[in-house]
Amino acid sequence: MEKLKSExxxxxxxxxxAFGLFFVIRTxxxxxxxxxxxxxxxxxxDGDQMIVNKFLYQMKEPERFDIVVFHASDRKDFxxxxxxxxxEHVAVENDTLYIDGEKVEEPFLQEQKExxxxxxxxxxxxxxxxxxxxYETIPENHVLVLGDNRKNSTDSRILGLVSMDQMVGKTSxxxxxxxxxxxxxx
Length: 186
Fold this sequence. Notes:
Elements: H1 2-28, E1 30-34, E2 49-53, H2 56-59, E3 67-71, E4 77-84, E5 90-93, E6 96-99, E7 102-104, H3 110-115, E8 126-127, E9 142-146, H4 156-159, E10 162-163, E11 167-176, E12 182-183
GO biological process, one term: signal peptide processing
GO molecular function: serine-type endopeptidase activity; signal peptidase activity
Protein name: Signal peptidase I
């Protein structure tokens, strides 16, 4: 009888440790997220399930073209791509991204641009000064984010810049659906 009690106690202890580890990992390191909507098409599809690395930005700053998750409101997280970094001026003119006046290629948009006719545009022209906040350059601890589906994305053009306090983390691993499992490269 004593052996049975000891065995049960060991099982309960092991389960409590496992749940504790799961809680710590889920809270501080990695979390699942489901893509909701078409704003990151064709890179991400509605319903794609991904893993968010929540601790990466504790060690380093976001980089251009990272795909990030951030708190857009108290109830909603968004997934977008970092386009502008602190200290930079961002503008789009004739579907071309300019950072500090220099043209920057966006290879993840190339396929979409090739499918469009010559008179269509993917991204309406804008300058950083025209966005909410009317900044001349992106302030420290902020980034400018855009969805890959520029015609159908609620991003910095509407929401304004994203502060690092709003940032949940970087995501690059699609784990479901099975036929879309992949690691996204910037």
